[in-house]
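Quick one, tokens below. Sequence please?
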């Protein structure tokens, strides 16, 4: 795969290794936002373009996921998509939810909130920066109603390669299987085998902007869920003669969208998703694997404590280094024009299609210089 750095001006100005927090948009996204403004400035006639763009964007996301467009909705964020699921399952006292301790708060807090209703939250614990399939199997029981996991951990960068197998375990228990693909979609292949519900942020690896989240819901689950909130966008025949007596939900995943979506974000997101489809996510992953391997090996060679597991099967676009001095190290990296995420006892680098060997080598050279001596054990 050729280098795509020239498509992203910011990636030429700095060493940008923070896509897992904030992805770089294409210049075409700015043009798309201008196009939205022009349609908005036309007044109500612009709505035809709004709705057309929404459908086209959902169709592009569906192609990225490999599913029908009817299974995809665009809500305000991955957090909202998870909250919709949590509040629509109709969980009862004594029902159990299985999560793990590598999850981002968005995939923890909605479930903890249900404890007030008597729902039990079971936490599978990581070992060596990863969650094993058997750890989940041990936590799943006869009262399990939901199993949820991130395809890639935001914290360690560990990719969970057994999603289909975990989905099968959940199905055997009669539970819904939910995946947060925020740190995967647009960077790693995502398959829906065994997945009932999937969410993803769009402003990271998908090259979009803020204010949108992908929601995938399998048709079988969609018919079972009672949406936690409704709006005019959720139903058919909005102005029917019986609208003050009853309503009929839309058949597709748009039933989870209460009102008009973030059309500016949709205009911008479509540019990113179409670019990813053109390049091919499989091609992106294949081309960047040597860079990620070089990054991991280079950090290990310098005696730095990796939170990221060494197994190549678990590799993603994220590599994290453990250090109690993350804030100081990250600030010093920023001063050198090397942008990573830092905090929570770690410095995290993330590699996307606008990164190359030069970025990796600059980071590898700089990181030992900005860490405290005790963070480097040898080398």
């Amino acid at each position: 795969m050729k280098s795509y750095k020239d498509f992203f001006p910011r990636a030429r100005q700095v060493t940008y290794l923070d896509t897992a927090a904030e992805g770089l948009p294409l210049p075409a996204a700015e043009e798309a936002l201008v196009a939205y403004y022009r349609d908005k400035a036309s007044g109500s006639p612009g709505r035809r373009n709004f709705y057309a763009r929404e459908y086209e964007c959902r169709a592009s996301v569906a192609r990225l996921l490999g599913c029908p467009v009817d299974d995809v909705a665009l809500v305000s964020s991955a957090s909202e998509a998870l909250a919709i699921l949590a509040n629509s399952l109709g969980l009862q006292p004594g029902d159990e939810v299985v999560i793990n301790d590598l999850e981002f708060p968005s995939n923890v807090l909605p479930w903890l909130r249900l404890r007030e209703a008597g729902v039990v939250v079971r936490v599978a614990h990581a070992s060596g920066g990863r969650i094993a399939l058997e750890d989940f199997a041990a936590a799943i029981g006869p009262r399990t109603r939901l199993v949820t996991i991130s395809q890639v951990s935001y914290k360690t960068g560990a990719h969970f390669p057994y999603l289909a197998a975990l989905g099968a375990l959940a199905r055997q228990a009669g539970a819904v299987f939910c995946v947060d693909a925020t740190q995967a979609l647009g960077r790693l292949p995502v398959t829906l085998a065994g997945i009932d519900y999937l969410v993803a942020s769009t402003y990271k690896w998908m090259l979009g902007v803020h204010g949108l989240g992908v929601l995938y819901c399998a048709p079988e689950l969609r018919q079972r869920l009672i949406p936690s909130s409704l709006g005019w966008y959720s139903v058919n025949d909005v102005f029917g003669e019986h609208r003050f007596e009853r309503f009929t939900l839309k058949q597709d995943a748009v039933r989870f969208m209460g009102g008009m979506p973030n059309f500016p974000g949709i205009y911008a997101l479509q540019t990113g998703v179409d670019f990813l489809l053109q390049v091919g996510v499989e091609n992106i992953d294949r081309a960047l694997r040597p860079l990620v391997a070089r990054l991991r090996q280079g950090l290990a060679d310098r005696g730095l404590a990796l939170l990221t597991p060494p197994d190549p099967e678990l590799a993603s676009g994220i590599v994290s280094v453990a250090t109690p001095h993350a804030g100081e190290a990250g600030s010093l990296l920023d001063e050198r024009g090397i942008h990573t995420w830092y905090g929570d006892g770690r410095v995290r680098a993330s590699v996307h299609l606008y990164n190359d060997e030069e970025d990796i080598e600059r980071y590898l050279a700089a990181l030992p210089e900005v860490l405290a001596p005790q963070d480097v054990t040898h080398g």
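The chain has a mean pLDDT of 95. DSSP finds twelve helices and 14 strands in the chain.
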